[in-house]
Write a structure and sequence with these properties.
The chain contains 8 helices and 7 strands; from the N terminus they run βαβαβααβαααβαββ. By secondary structure, the chain is of the alpha/beta class.
Amino acid sequence: MSRIIFVSGGARSGKSRFAEKKAIELGNRIGYIATGIATDDDMADRIRHHQESRPAGFVTLEGWKDYSGLLESEDGKACDAYIFDCVTVGITNLLFDRETQVEYGGGELDYDTCSMEEIHRMEERITRVFDELVRYIRHKDKTIIFVSNELGMGLVASYRLGNIFRDIAGRINQMLAGHSDEAYLLVSGLPLQLK
């Protein structure tokens, strides 16, 4: 029987570690869908830290597009359950992916000047990516733990892209939490079960 577990929290709240512990409890072969792209030295260091702290035996599946294809790979098919870490990084990657922008935004988007219609088309594309992944998990009778940042408790961004990102990520989080069988909020390393 498939299960969707949603784990959110602020930066450094302990959500990845909590998701890893939940995955170990499942006792299955775990695939770790790692969405990070090393765009600079700081991000490369964060990725390295995540890789080194990941439990032994987890299968790393690196990618941030075509998740169904990633899970249909030889390594992906061998897994019974997955951790998707993290949703907000995946959204960021899609927002800045030139191919996605051209296909769904009408051209390479300048988020400072693009129209709301272009932003809505981009959000529809991103929503479709995550909706397809949820349907794939349900159809294949697998389990996935989505890890995401909770963005709705901070200040309103002083720049347009920050607000666009917050709004899209907030709605994607709501969608994933709505599809979930269990949902948790992490605060200072402590989980609060929401569902």
